[in-house]
Amino acid sequence: MALASNVALRIFIERHCHPAGALECIRSGQVPGGLKANREFAECVVGYESAISDELKTLLFDPQTAGGLLISIAEGDCEQIVVEMQASGIPARSIGKVTESQKPLIRIY
Predict the structure, then answer these.
(1) Which residues lie across from 106 on neighbouring strands?
(2) Are 73 and 33 in contact (CB under 8 A)?
(3) What does the pLDDT look like over 36-60, one tens digit per residue?
(4) N or C: which end of the chain has fewer CB within 10 A?
(5) pLDDT (tens digit, 9 = 90+) per residue, 62-104?
(6) Where are any strands of DSSP class E within 1-109?
(7) What is the layout of strands, in order, in the sheet containing 96-100?
(8) How far is CA 17 from CA 69, 70, 74, 92, 100, in A?
(9) Pairing mode of beta strands 7-11, 96-100
(10) pTM
(11) Which positions ≥6 away from 86 have C-beta within 8 Å?
């Protein structure tokens, strides 16, 4: 999404939501092949700004929680849309922001 739009993404790890038990699965070595492929393909455009555990880094590439659940909303509309989605029973949250194109393409804070 960022590459095709010529922008960069800033993701705030403390806002990231993951399924119950996901970290435990990673810690026990239950890592899907699709996750490994995603990580091998995309990690070259990701930078990590803070001390993020390897388990969380791994989880960010999980094919069951990546990409398809991400939408981009104009910053001024974000809060209202998140509230409306939550009111409709959709567990939405703002996890980051779009910036001018820069390297790395995706930065995790």
Answers:
(1) 9, 46
(2) no
(3) 999 999 999 999 987 899 999 998 8
(4) N
(5) 887 655 578 899 999 999 999 999 999 988 999 999 999 999 9
(6) 7-11, 46-48, 96-100, 106-108
(7) 46-48, 106-108, 7-11, 96-100
(8) 11, 12, 21, 10, 25
(9) antiparallel
(10) 0.83
(11) 92
